[in-house]
């Protein structure tokens, strides 16, 4: 989960000003900040760790950090409404917030079940559920020792995503897109071809598009594959307020994983 938060924070300054190269300077730009992606990820963690209704947790954290901004239009309207009914979304918010499910899962099917539980409260469109499930499963497989190639094959077989490309293939024509269909496969590729954690984040930011969300999805998977270097983990942690840190600590404790991803 911290990997997703780091991806979100690192990508925050490039969402509307894409930088299509990997050597874009320090991983954390001086103006970097955590976005709605992090707020929603914390909400999902809170729901799973404390057995809260995911919709209630999302509304609680979203309203608490409303001025953080960056909310998608439909999600913002849902957030401030009295309804807990889903609205058939297939937006990439389903995948960017789901990393806690991958961390807490005990099996492949459990990862998918947890992903569905925290996703269907808003993103109940088949593509929304698929994007979240694929991301959670990738994280589960990564943290349980599966190779990048094994993860690629599993996700392709189960979900039908084309994961055969590379960031270099994607970058020239990729454009801003907020759907799971056009975010999740690209983000997964960025993690699965990476050489280490930072390389995955740089891959994700370099392809452009919805940079913070692409990097959040890639970051969650990269954390499972590589762990997070201590200096990067500490920097990412420093951006977070105390209430978010408490949820993060509880999640990792329940998962039996330390902050660097080792069980």
| Mean pLDDT across residues | 96
Helix fraction by DSSP (H/I, runs of at least 4): 55-70%
Radius of gyration over C-alpha positions, nearest whole angstrom: 16 Å
Poorly predicted spans: none
The end-to-end distance, rounded to whole angstroms, is 14 Å
Query: Helix/strand-derived class?
Result: mainly alpha
**CATH top level?**
Mainly Alpha
* N to C succession of SSEs: HHHHHHHHHHHHHHH
CATH superfamily: ADP-ribosylation/Crystallin J1
Taking the sheet with the most strands, its summary is: none
Tally of individual domains: 1
**Strand-residue fraction?**
under 5%
Q: Per CATH, what is the topology? A: ADP-ribosylglycohydrolase fold
Oligomer: single chain
Total beta strands: 0
* Shape-level CATH architecture: Orthogonal Bundle
- Helix count equals 15
Q: Given the C-alpha coordinates, what overall shape results?
A: globular
Quickly list its features.
single chain, 0% strand, mainly alpha, 263 residues, ADP-ribosylglycohydrolase fold, 15 helices
Descriptive account of the structure:
- α2 packs across α3 (54-64), α8 (126-143) runs parallel beside α13 (211-226) and α9 runs antiparallel to α11.
- The longest helix is centred in the middle third of the chain and has 18 residues, at 126-143.
- The chain has helices at 2-11, 36-49, 54-64, 73-79, 93-96, 99-104, 108-119, 126-143, 148-159, 167-170, 184-192, 197-206, 211-226, 230-238, 242-255.
- It has one domain: ADP-ribosylation/Crystallin J1 (ADP-ribosylglycohydrolase fold).
- It has 263 residues and is mainly alpha-helical.
- It has 15 helices and no strands.
- Helix content is 59%, strand content 0%.
